[in-house]
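S.,

Sequence below, as promised.
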Amino acid sequence: MVASPERKLTTILSADVAGYSRMMSADEAGTFAVLKAYREVMTKLIADNRGRVVSTAGDGLLAEFASVVQAVECAVQSQRELAERNAALPDERQMRFRIGINLGDVLVEGSDLYGDGVNVAARLQGMAEPGGILISGTVFDQVKDKLSLGFDYLGPQSVKNISAQVPTYRVLLQPGAAPPPEYREAVEPGNDRRTPRRDDPWRRLYIDAARTGAIIVLLVGINLLSNSARLWFQWPALGLLFLFALRAIHIFRR
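The prediction came back faster than expected:
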């Protein structure tokens, strides 16, 4: 009987360099020197946060952590430290890592890790912006109340070779930072409620409807209290409703 492979639940951090091939083509020796120095920074931070480097193939780095919180803290510390180092370099030598983090079940063979748990972290890393961090919904559920960071919900993302979509969050590296101004449906998986942003069209429509209704009620009151034998409020009310309809069309055509 063939023994089943060992499995475990762990937090995977996947990182690579944005534009690495272009940088190597322009300055091979200089790029490799920066990569080596930056990897040393990340390796130290991984160890400080009780993680383990799994592999460092090419320009990539794969690490695992027993603690989800420490994995995210390590990623944030790495991006902040590397951003400071980049600030002292010419633009063409600045090296920005993309980082993806996932909590999942993996296969273990010796010191190596395999499976969808690893693949999701790698796909998130590939979607991250240079200098940025993307985390899966499983990671967010563990850290949302434990870290003084902001998180921008990007919605379920289709991930290559993974059948189910992955709820994805961008880590906002500055404590209390606001997410980008564009509207997003900031809902957590399993929660149908919408959190409207400032430019949510439905929110603007509700505000305009309330304002229009209040003015019409005011007109009715003035008409009835003016001791006039003639009802006239319906004509300005119709005009207001017409303007409201035009406003609604404008809101949803933006």
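Helices lie at 20-26, 28-48, 68-87, 116-127, 137-143, 201-225, 234-253.

Coffee later?
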